[in-house]
Fold:
Amino acid sequence: MRITPFPLAALPLTLSALLLTGCLGGGGGSSSGGDSDDDIAPPEMTREHDDRSFTATSAEFDALPGAMIYFGKYDGLQGEALYALEVPNGWDGDGLVMWTRGYGGEGEVVSTSKPPEAWRQAVLQQGYAWASSSYSANYYDARAGIEDTNKLALNVMEYVERDYSHGLSTPDQYLISGVSMGGHIAAAAVDRENMERTQYKVPYEGAAPLCQAEQNQFQWLGDYPRVMMELAGYGNEDYSRFPELVGTFHPTGLLVVPGPIVNALFNQKAGGLPDWSSPKGIEGTRLMAIAENLTGGERPIFEFGYDSVLQSIVLGTGGSGGDINGILALNGYGNEDQMYRWTTDPEPTAEEVEFNERIARMAADPDANPLRDDGVRWIPLVNGEFDVPVLTMHTLGDFYVPFRHQQLYRERAEEHGNEHLLVQRAIRAPSHCDFADAEYQAAITDWLLWVNGAPKPAGDEVLDPTVVADADYGCTFTNPQRPGLPACGAN
Structure:
């Protein structure tokens, strides 16, 4: 068994780049907003990210048996980008899957993007080629992710002919798949607004966004620290003090010296480190329950993700000004309409009402993430408006990019009548994107067959709280069961 965890090195403390925005739509909220000229960003609107530059440094790797691989550079949205293209022997334009990488940090170097080997094997075994872009920028630049990936999809065969003098056929089908931020990009790339507004229009016939982030990611990363501050007794402090009050972090992203907020809400292990599995008092217990509700509700494996390194990663994002570290020009975070609950009854308790009345509130600037006339938004939206088969996969314990995104995706698809085109799978694992080889291979194979006319594959129900809370939820597509977690069928 090989399990592919999301590497800790890719989740540094500097992930404050990801924080914060809850109201990213052009008119506020996460719908598509309006499409009138009044909603389009004025040309003078600029952001810190516009002045950043990056260096493209190739990192080549071997082709899998029975395939040929190519590498090169091309001009992307923000500067140079790198491409990789792997083609199975005998390929004659028989479909191209674009791989979209996850978050690349805040460094000045972009590098070649390499998908998990099990994903590559599944794609190649079905006769597809795949290509990936480094993107021309780091930070949470999902806009560059879409535009650079789309440009590559349309031009990669020309780049290979230019760089290798190898003539390859034009693909007869385009698909897209990725993980984490790349999952956000893959889902957004087939969403109607982005397909219409991108500079490079690709007729994608399917998407497989895995463990995907989306606009709600920044709502979550803004809500949890604010709830902590209030429950710990620091709700009257300016939010900018959160980083100093939560503690000191190692460059790897681990909390090494708990601050007063953490000490107020968690018991400590020997040596003084927080015991995330042991909330302190009624406030700590309520924090854990609020976190569970915000990340997808009662479900198996949640507590294992809560008691993990992902807790440090989420806390390490605290204190941003709401512009996602310069990706937006204005504050995009707002919690005016957010209801924080530690119970699950239909109506909030009197104590919950009182808590929600006193927690600090702020409004997002409605112009933080407007429509643009030069491509997709700075943060492309996932609105659930798609017309092609989409298959997703998400771990239940992911405390960083939470399972709640899957529920929102389903709700939006139902709103737009697209639910018959969406298959979702829950995996009983505690971390972020830590899928086993067999899970990758089954998901990608089933998706590719479905896109090409096979019956719609099976998936999991994600909206029924009773189903999701069942002790065996997620057992259908988890392969193998993870050691140390509750076994399927044990109850």
